[in-house]
């Protein structure tokens, strides 16, 4: 037997520049930055959790702020049983559910029309939709406020300081972005799929509901998550447009009722923020799998 | 089932003419293949028949009705796409029955039709699978099944086999032919592959640059092409074209390829070619199978020719030889025993009984 034929005698792999070694280093760096990232982003919620378990007395004491010496659920009990908090929560939930539904009802057909039914000006319109999204809410709320005032003068209908005014306001943020996401998603569906449906006898509406929506489900869920997050966390519009306590949504309610003058009820503010963050977290947890799943696989070649 | 008539249809995209006024009559039960290089307007024509493209000018009739303004779903057609276009979220059964379900067919009838189509296509075991669980060939069958269950007047195929590998393509070609023999639905099939066109079609329509070059049976196109384009497009390896001059030679005619090579024109062709004598802008068209090794006994019309071979390609049952013929590249088909070797001389013979003479200016075959 010659030495070259013997695998044990084969020269060892070069130590530097091999694929495996590069992969190892890439992984180490990835973990390093991921851990930094996690620490950076998890510190605030952990601090919130710690603070929410303390009494006001302990919060203002000079002991280690990162440790709970006398844990209590007092803040939670107080907040959950408070009728104000319940109202805020219900207002937020109603606003979010209606806004998400309205957004999807508008954005999905709009995106379908803009991406598939080629009509005069459809491309310009699609760009226009995106440009609308680029206008920040901090600029929009003043003219919007003025519009509501003019509407009130003309019709006598008072829109301001009603929780449902948010149903008109939030879609100005969610509809353009969701339409844009869905245009992108629909564009990734092969044209032959709708042509096949049309030849099979489907109307545009049936093509949308029976082919496009099921195939674009991951995109639809992404858009739903986005519009829910925006509606749930929206602060500026409800702050500007609603003032009565019974009309407030959660983020504004927590700030306006738990900060009295210069007295900050930190324990309850943190508890409220944590409880407020729970619904989006639960929704993400349930929808993430759908969001990631690639449903278009197998539609065409490949 | 129905005939399809295309009357002077034109398709214009902005300023580009994709289809320039073509006429075509497709008979009931006929299998017609539109073939041509990419951009020749064949797919556009098919899509106009399907109703997926507006018709700029002219008329399309399915049965006896003008369908220009009839939406695709009311044309009673079925189409098979190049990339299958199966609905990814539906099972094979749901894919195939989608059209029938939209038309609110009774459930029993839907199931019967799907099972019948699945039986014809041999996909009965796949009915509960999703498209992503199928191979390319199986997906193609499902796409055909979706067309068959509808029992339409016309089948339209848009390059259905070009996504398959070579072996599967041959297999599916045979399947398509078998299916057509069973269901006998009028079929319009688009492909850029002339082998597919020749093997499948009752009649082949060769298109180029938005016009029809020639319509005919595969044999007609192969043996009597009307234009240089058809002559060069149909057949593999392609026909050889050698510039030549037609010279009167006493009572007969001869073809002068260059100073050295002069070929006598067979007498039965002489009268046909006589009006073109003296024309120096002609091309001799000769298929590779008519450029073979010289045999000891030459038939009348077969002329010997010496060739210095550049490249030889042994194919097993025959060998393709490439050489220079009067300044033009030429391909011949010789027996594997002819002793053809790269770079060596080979005594060859050209069978002028099967020659074509082409007017290089107009591109017409004379």
Q: How would you summarize the topology of this molecule?
A:
The complex is a heterodimer of chains A (302) and B (366).
Chain A: H1 19-52, H2 56-60, H3 74-81, H4 83-116, H5 122-134, H6 137-155, H7 165-169, H8 171-187, H9 191-199, H10 204-215, H11 217-233, H12 236-241, H13 250-258, E1 259-260, E2 263-264, H14 266-292
Antiparallel strand pairs in A: 1-2
Helix pairs in contact in A: 1-14, 3-14, 4-5, 4-8, 4-11, 4-13, 5-8, 8-11, 9-10, 11-14, 13-14
Chain B: E1 4-13, E2 16-26, E3 31-35, H1 42-50, E4 57-62, E5 65-66, E6 77-80, H2 92-102, H3 107-121, H4 136-149, E7 154-158, H5 166-183, E8 186-191, H6 194-200, E9 203-208, E10 211-216, H7 218-223, H8 228-233, E11 240-249, E12 252-256, E13 262-264, H9 267-273, E14 282-286, E15 291-293, E16 302-314, E17 319-325, E18 328-334, E19 345-351, E20 356-359
Parallel strand pairs in B: 3-8, 3-9, 6-7, 7-8
Antiparallel strand pairs in B: 1-2, 1-4, 4-5, 9-10, 11-12, 11-14, 12-13, 14-20, 15-19, 16-17, 16-19, 17-18
């Amino acid at each position: 037997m010659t030495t070259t034929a013997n695998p044990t005698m084969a020269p060892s792999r070069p130590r530097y520049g091999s694929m495996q070694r590069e992969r190892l280093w890439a992984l180490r760096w990835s973990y390093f930055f991921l851990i930094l990232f996690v620490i950076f982003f998890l510190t605030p919620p952990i601090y919130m959790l710690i603070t929410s378990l303390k009494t006001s007395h302990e919060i203002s004491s000079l002991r280690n702020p990162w440790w709970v010496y006398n844990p209590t659920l007092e803040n939670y009990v107080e907040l959950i049983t408070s009728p104000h908090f319940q109202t805020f929560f219900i207002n937020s939930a109603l606003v979010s559910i209606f806004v998400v539904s309205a957004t999807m009802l508008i954005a999905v057909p709009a995106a379908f029309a803009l991406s598939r039914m080629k009509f005069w000006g459809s491309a310009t319109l699609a760009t226009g939709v995106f440009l609308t999204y680029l206008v920040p809410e901090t600029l929009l709320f003043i003219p919007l406020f003025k519009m509501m005032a003019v509407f009130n003068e003309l019709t006598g209908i008072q829109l301001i300081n009603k929780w449902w005014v948010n149903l008109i306001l939030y879609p100005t943020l969610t509809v353009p972005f969701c339409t844009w996401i869905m245009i992108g998603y629909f564009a990734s569906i092969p044209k032959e799929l709708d042509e096949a449906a049309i030849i099979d006898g489907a109307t545009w509406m049936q093509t949308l509901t029976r082919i496009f929506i099921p195939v674009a489900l991951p995109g639809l869920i992404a858009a739903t998550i986005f519009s829910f997050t925006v509606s749930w966390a929206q602060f500026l519009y409800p702050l500007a447009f609603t003032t009565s306590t019974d009309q407030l949504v959660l983020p504004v309610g927590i700030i306006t009722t738990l900060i009295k003058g210069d007295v900050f009820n930190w324990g309850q503010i943190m508890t409220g923020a944590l409880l407020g963050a729970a619904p989006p977290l639960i929704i993400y947890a349930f929808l993430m799998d759908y969001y990631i799943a690639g449903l278009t696989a197998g539609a065409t070649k490949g | 089932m129905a005939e399809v008539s295309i009357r002077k249809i034109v398709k214009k995209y902005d300023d580009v003419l994709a289809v320039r006024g073509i006429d075509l009559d497709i008979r009931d039960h006929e299998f017609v293949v539109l073939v041509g290089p990419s951009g020749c307007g064949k797919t556009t024509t098919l899509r106009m028949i399907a109703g997926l493209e507006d018709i700029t000018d002219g008329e399309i009739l399915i049965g006896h009705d003008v369908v220009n303004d009839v939406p695709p779903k009311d044309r009673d057609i079925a189409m098979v796409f190049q990339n299958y276009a199966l609905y990814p979220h539906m099972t094979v059964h749901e894919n195939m029955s989608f059209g029938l379900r939209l038309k609110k067919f009774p459930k029993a009838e839907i199931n019967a039709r799907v099972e019948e189509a699945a039986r014809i296509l041999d996909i009965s075991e796949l009915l509960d699978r999703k498209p992503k669980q199928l191979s390319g060939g199986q997906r193609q069958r499902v796409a055909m099944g979706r067309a068959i269950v509808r029992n339409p007047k016309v089948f339209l195929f848009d390059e259905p086999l070009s996504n398959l590998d070579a072996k599967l393509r041959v297999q599916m070609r045979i399947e398509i032919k078998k299916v057509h023999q069973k269901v006998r639905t009028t079929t319009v099939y688009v492909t850029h592959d002339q082998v597919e066109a020749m093997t499948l079609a009752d009649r082949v329509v060769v298109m180029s640059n938005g016009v029809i070059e020639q319509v005919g049976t595969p044999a007609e196109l192969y043996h009597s092409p009307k234009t240089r384009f058809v002559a060069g497009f149909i057949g593999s390896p392609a026909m050889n074209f050698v510039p030549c001059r037609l010279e009167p030679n006493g009572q007969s005619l001869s073809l002068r390829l260059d100073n050295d090579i002069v070929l006598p024109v067979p007498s039965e062709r002489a009268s046909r070619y006589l009006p073109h004598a003296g024309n120096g802008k002609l091309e001799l068209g000769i298929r590779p199978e008519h450029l073979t090794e010289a045999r000891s006994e030459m038939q009348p019309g077969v002329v010997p020719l010496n060739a210095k071979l550049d490249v030889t390609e042994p194919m097993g049952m025959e060998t393709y030889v490439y050489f220079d013929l009067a300044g033009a590249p030429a391909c011949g088909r010789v027996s594997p025993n002819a002793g053809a070797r790269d770079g060596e001389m080979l005594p060859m013979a050209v069978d002028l009984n099967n020659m074509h003479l082409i007017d290089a200016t107009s591109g017409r075959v004379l």
